[in-house]
C-alpha cells in the first residue's frame, strides 16, 4: 500500500463516483469510500464511520489509511445476506494487491465492482418458469 497522503484528481474522483453509482444500481447496496488519516484502532474507526452512514445495514464502507497502511471493509447486516466472508476476503486481497502496486484508483474501482457483483440480489427462478436466455 502506498504510504502517505492519498489524493485523487477531480477526474479520478468523478470516475470513482461513477463506479459507485453503477455498483449501487447493480447491487441495490450503498457504497462509501473513505481515504484519509484514521485513529490507531482502524477497525473500530471503520465500524464507527459505517454506523454513521444513512443506511448502515444496506451499506458497504471501504476505508484506506495510507499513513497507517490500513485497509478495512465493513458490510452491513442486509449486505451480508448475499456477500459472504470469503467474497469479502477476496475483495480485500485484490484491493491490497492493487494498493501494494500503487494503483489506488484502479484498485478501488475493481474492489467496488467485485463487491457489487457478489452483493447483488440473486435471481429466483420459480418451478413453473422457463429459464431466460441472456
TrEMBL record:
InterPro entries (alphabetical): DUF5130
Alphabetical list of Pfam families matching this protein: DUF5130 (PF17174)
Highest rank taxon of the organism: Bacteria
Name by which UniProt lists this protein: DUF5130 domain-containing protein
Native source organism of the sequence: Nocardioides bruguierae
Amino acid at each position: 500500500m502506498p504510504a502517505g497522503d492519498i489524493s485523487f484528481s477531480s477526474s479520478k474522483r468523478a470516475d470513482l463516483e461513477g463506479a459507485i453509482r453503477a455498483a449501487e444500481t447493480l447491487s441495490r447496496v450503498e457504497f462509501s469510500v473513505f481515504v484519509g488519516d484514521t485513529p490507531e484502532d482502524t477497525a473500530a474507526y471503520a465500524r464507527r464511520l459505517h454506523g454513521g452512514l444513512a443506511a448502515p445495514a444496506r451499506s458497504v464502507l471501504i476505508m484506506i489509511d495510507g499513513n497507517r497502511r490500513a485497509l478495512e471493509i465493513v458490510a452491513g447486516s442486509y449486505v451480508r445476506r448475499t456477500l459472504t466472508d470469503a467474497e469479502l476476503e477476496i475483495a480485500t486481497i485484490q484491493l491490497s494487491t492493487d494498493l501494494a502496486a500503487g494503483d489506488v484508483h484502479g484498485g478501488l474501482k475493481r474492489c467496488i465492482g467485485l463487491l457489487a457483483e457478489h452483493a447483488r440480489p440473486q435471481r429466483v427462478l420459480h418451478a413453473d418458469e422457463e429459464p431466460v436466455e441472456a
